[in-house]
Amino acid sequence: MSFDTLGLEPRLLQGVGAMGFTEPTAIQREAIPHILQGSDVVGAAQTGTGKTAAFVLPLLQRTPVKQGVRALIVTPTRELALQIDEVIRAAAKYTHHRTAVVIGGVGMQPQIQLLRRGVDIVVACPGRLLDVHSRRAVDLSRVETLVLDEADRMLDMGFWPDVSRILGLLPPKRQNLLFSATMSRDVLRVVQSTLHDPVRVETSPVSTPVDRVEQSVYPVARHQKTDLLVQLLRRGGHRRTLVFTRTKHGADRLNRQLERQGLGSAAIHGGRSQAQRQRALDGFRAGRSHILVATDVVARGIDVDDISHVVNYDMPNTPEDYVHRIGRTARAGADGSAVSFLAMEELDRLTEIEQSLGATIPCYDLEGFAYGERVVPDPAREARPKRPTGGGGSRRAGRQGGSGRAGRRR
C-alpha cells in the first residue's frame, strides 16, 4: 500500500515524498482514513511506529490556513512537542500551515508574539499553554481538532487537571484524537469522558521493541553502581548509551562522575532549561557525547536513532516505564541491549516487571569487577532469598561485549 491510497491530497503527498516516506506504517494505514472522515480516534501504538505522522498528515488536510488556531496538539514533554513540530513543518512544506510550539523552559514572550501574528496549529505542553492563554495571547474557541498525544504519560505525570482545564476552553463540538502507548484503565476512563463514539485503532508490530531488546540484570550494591557502569562502558561496544536514573539530582550527580572518568556524557531532565536539554540532546544525536543520562520525565521525548544500549542505573517505578525506557533502543527494526542494575531494595520492582513481561530476565555478573560484600537477589525463586556474596557466577555470558558471567539462577 502507498500513501496515495489513503485519501491524502496531492500537496501532502508531495510533503510525504520529500520526507522520504514510501509506504505507510500499520498505524498510519489504520488511523489516517478515519481521521480524514472526521471520526474521533483512539490510537494505541508503540513509540517508533510512525504514530506522529499518523495524526499529523490528516490533521493538516483538515485544518484550514490563515483562519486562526483550528488545531491543538497537547503533549507531556517539551522534547516531544518539538519533535511533533518538526514533523508538521516537514509535512506542511507545500501546504504552508503556520505552527507555534508553546512549551516551558524558554522565554514566553517570543511565543506570545508568534501566536499574536497568527498560526493555524499549536503544539503545546499543558502548563505553558494555560499560562499563555491567561495572558489572552491565544484564542482556543475555534479549535476544530484536538490531539492528546502520550495520554498515558500525561496521566502518569499528573497533567490531567491542566488538560481538563484546557478541554473547558475548547468548543464542545470538535474532533478528538487520543494517542497512547498503553491503554490502562485510567486512559480508558479518559476516552469515555472526552471522546465521542471513537474508532479504536490498535496496532502491534511484528516484533515489539521488548522482543528485539537483549535484556539482562546485574545485581550490585547501590554504592557500587557507578563503578560498575564505568567498567561496563569501558568494555567497548557501546556506540550510544542512554542511562536512566530515578531523580534529576541523581542524573546530575552521575553525569559529573562520568565526566570525571573521562567519559563523554551529558544529562537531560525536567530541572534543566529547554536550551540545556536541547543542547544535551543535540550533542547526543551528533555523537559529541556518547552517553546521555536521563530521567523518565523526558524518556518519551528522546527520539534518537542507533542507541545501542539502555542502562537502568535505577530500576524504574513501573513496568510501563521499563518498556518505554528500553524501547529507546531496538528502533526501526534494529536490535539493542538493555542492562538493569539491581540493588536489593529494588527487587520488588524487578518482580513486577517480570510479571508484566511474562518472562524472567537473566542475571549476570561483570567478569573481573571487584564486587564488595553484597546481598544478591535470586529472581528465579518465589521467595527471592537474600544471599551475601562477594561475586560469583557459573556460566560465561556471550553478551554485553562478552564480559559477563551468568549466575543467580537455580
Gist of the model:
The protein is built from 15 helices and 18 strands. The protein is α/β, with parallel strands linked by helices and 410 residues long. α2 packs parallel to α3, α3 packs across α4 and α6 crosses α8.
SSE layout:
Layout: H1 10-18, H2 26-36, E1 41-44, H3 51-62, E2 71-74, H4 78-91, E3 99-102, H5 108-117, E4 121-124, H6 126-134, E5 145-149, H7 151-156, H8 160-167, E6 175-180, H9 185-194, E7 199-202, H10 209-212, E8 213-219, H11 225-234, E9 241-244, H12 248-260, E10 265-268, H13 274-286, E11 291-294, E12 309-312, H14 319-326, E13 336-342, H15 347-357, E14 364-366, E15 374-375, E16 388-389, E17 395-397, E18 404-406
Parallel strand pairs: 1-6, 1-7, 2-4, 2-5, 3-4, 5-6, 8-13, 9-11, 9-12, 10-11, 12-13
Antiparallel strand pairs: 14-18, 15-16, 17-18
Helix pairs in contact: 2-3, 3-4, 6-8
Number of strands: 18
Radius of gyration of CA atoms, rounded to a whole number: 23 Å
* Model regions low in confidence, pLDDT < 50 over at least 5 residues: 379-410
Q: What is the domain total for the residues?
A: 2
Level-2 CATH architecture of the largest domain: 3-Layer(aba) Sandwich
Number of helices: 15
Mean pLDDT reading: 84
Give me the side-by-side strand order of the main sheet.
3-4-2-5-6-1-7
Helical content band: 25-40%
- CATH superfamily grouping of the largest domain: P-loop containing nucleotide triphosphate hydrolases
Structural class: alpha/beta
Largest sheet: 7 strands, parallel
Q: How far do the termini sit from each other?
A: 50 Å
CATH topology of the largest domain: Rossmann fold
**What is the strand content?**
15-25%
Shape: globular
CATH class of the largest domain: Alpha Beta
